[in-house]
């Protein structure tokens, strides 16, 4: 049964101080720099005997104790994480860890809408779901456990994946408070997978999972100078994940490097009978031999990349445009073929959720899918969207959320299934995708389109297309920005090649300056 939140909420450092007193603090490893270490670095240190999973976890716990009161990235810690780390160490000593793969013994932080069938809560940042009991692990959590990963805890997020209200600040939830960008505290962390990106950027953990409906992996990854992969819809299971819309929802990794993100992606893709229709279709895109084979330093060579300027790059100031011109030169030097100044047909309609039909369809789909999720919970204070609305009304004063309202919830509650308007909206998005990105990529024979930050997220979202965000630089005020490689369904292998080659050619990520808080 999920224990009360005050056992695990990181609103103060009291719990972690006590926990660290039990485990004995952080182990020092003179020959190994845990901060910024990749999964491969960590596994090599495991094999040398310089590091254990317990020591790695203790380090992350210590860093979380120091930074979370400031950054609000972690909403809840797993009380069983140390036991899982110890089990990984025992398996490694017996030689059993090798067959598990690269995530064996690696702590992973999950966004708070990804269910785990353990003592962790799954609440989407809302007190309305505190104490609810899920029937089982989500599909992706189950795959992580099979890979031997240690479930570190749950990341904070924009409450209800930013679907409660348009007025709620990005990265805010009633349970977690306001997530803060570790580079510039006054800057927003961007969109709903905020805690997952903040924690990885601040080296509170090396691996996390986020979810995306329209920008919620790509945007926080770009804003926090980390790597995020938004997979093709259906490539990863959504079973056991608090939904927005099954038409667009996808689960993907947020890490510090492309290599780490690819290893996580490889562990979580595949068929799941509880999300059968989508994952059966998605499974046909999984390459024989997995995704790590596409981590190629020459991955840009011969690739045709479309540069989208109108509405996209042209929307940014001159300094960022200048930086992107330098990036384009780098791509050309690495053998990339850039097709410049391309336009997507009807792009203004695509990026406007009211004109595309995304808003109309998503409101109805959200109510239907959320009610279905809530009905399957073993125990829950709420069983429907209406219950959630009434809960929020009752507790808004205590949570200081009255001013935010719940306007999207109210719109969704007034929907009654997929009627003519919703079906027309879905058909319109299909037409916009076919005549937009798909036609452009086929006519120009593109391997990817390139856009800054998350400005192209809605193009990818309504078509179920994948994208990878890689650090691209820092604004004059220090806020990071990213570059997004986007493609058609199943194009992850090509996107990985290009993203990895770009990352290795530029290596732009620098950790945030947080020493004064440690």
Automatic annotation (TrEMBL):
It comes from Iris pallida. Keywords: Signal. Coiled coil: none annotated. It comes from the Eukaryota. InterPro entries: Amidase_dom, AS_sf. Residues 1-25 form the signal peptide. This is Amidase. Pfam families: Amidase. Residues 56-495 form the Amidase domain.
